Amino acid sequence: MNSLRLALIAAVLLGLWQGIVVLFALPPFILPGPLAVARAAADNAALLTWHSIITLGEIAAGTFLGVALGAATALAMAASKPLRGLLAPLLLFSQIIPVFAVAPLLTLWLGYGFGPKVVMAVLVIFFPVASAFFDGLMQTRREWLDLAANAAATPARSLLLLRVPAAIPSFVTGLRLALIYAPIGAVLGEWVGASRGLGYLMLFANGRAHTDLMFAALLALTLLAMLFYAVIMALAKMLLGKYLRA
Amino acid sequence: MKGPSLHIEGRAAIDGEAVFGPLSLDARGGGVTCLLGPSGVGKSTLLRLIAGLAPYVSFDGRITCGDGEQAAPRASFIQQSDMLLPWADVLANVTIGKRLRGEKADTEKAQGLLAEVGLSGFEHRFPNTLSGGQRQRVALARTLMEERPIVLLDEPFSALDIKTRHGMQALALRILAGKTVLLVTHDPGEAARLADDVAIMGVAGVKMISAPASPTPRPTDGADTIAFAAQLTAAMMREAA
Ligand SMILES: Nc1ncnc2c1ncn2[C@@H]1O[C@H](COP(=O)(O)OP(=O)(O)OP(=O)(O)O)[C@@H](O)[C@H]1O
Ligand SMILES: [Mg+2]
Question: How far apart are CA B199 and CA B207, in angstroms?
């Protein structure tokens, strides 16, 4: 039912797209039709796959590191008041600096390879994960904190056994945002300076007026990001399901 | 292990605003004292003070036990909302106190207690699959697991239907026997059924009323229960006025 509806929406949109191309007689270097894009995707399947794998690697590494770093920061801030004072401005700073402006610097410092893209992804992911998880850790129900106090729990055990489990839904909210932002970070990094990856391929194709290939790369990126999101969320639901019940 | 008698006297304020007192209240060692009184008079605050869970309250007075030891570390507290952890199964909920202290969770003992509250076979159910009465029983088993001689109950049965409530009252009396129990309720019928003593808390202080000598739980339709419930209702009405 759901997939049927999705297929229907996709068919309508594709039809509309092809219709506009035909109706306005647009040249293929401005807007290629879906059929042209599909042909380009098929002709360049190996190329697209190769660049997709690069970008997926950047997204995955960035997500893993960004989520780990964000979660660790949130934990440190929740556990210690002095650390909270120290890290809170850093957290804000990481969100306020325009990532676009940092990207050339990263390229300058870290070169054209894998590293700067991962760092870009980490930069955009870090804040949503850390702030959502931290909010959750600071909002434990009073009744549960009472339970910890009444049981003479140490702060560390109260954090581990009550506050962290209670904050998992907030963490998952942060994770959801991270999965959406990660591809943006990686592709941004590729646009500024790269010799591989879907972002690079898009620029390359654009430069040579291979607009159909550019669209094919965009399509690949969209599919990749959606797939990555779906897989990680399914994994999170499987591993953390019991913390998400009401 | 019989619970110690409990004596509270003093006044309490939050942010400079008086909550209650000066008052004086006694709970008989190993007995059930029901605490009645109008909403907002400070019953929950009093319970939290005894349990040591009210750092935000400035309390001018003292809380002492008949045996000279402290009350707070020996008191366990059950709130109206049962505080069960939704991500932990029944067994893990019952043993959470021990795990919070870093002690070994005694599964066998927990299973014995679950059997005692009639929840054998529920060990691996999650709280969201339990009824309100079953959840309260898990909370009771968790309290018993703590082996504290003083038990503080804040309106524990108010959300239950009358039949379940009667069953839970009898069960609580049976398994809490010998402990010093302080139970907050708005229901004079409940107090008349369960109490050894009743404390009626008002803005002017606490009025202690001793219950009929008949064994608890008293039958709801017993003549002395009915008369006592009526006496309590009248006293509460005077307090509220
Ligand atoms: N954390 C708090 N901060 C400020 N005021 C509080 C706090 N907790 C309770 N109070 C105030 O203290 C007074 C007593 O509250 P308490 O909850 O003890 O009343 P209660 O007798 O248990 O009422 P009820 O029967 O409705 O449960 C109320 O006026 C309440 O507003
Ligand atoms: Mg109350």
Answer: 6
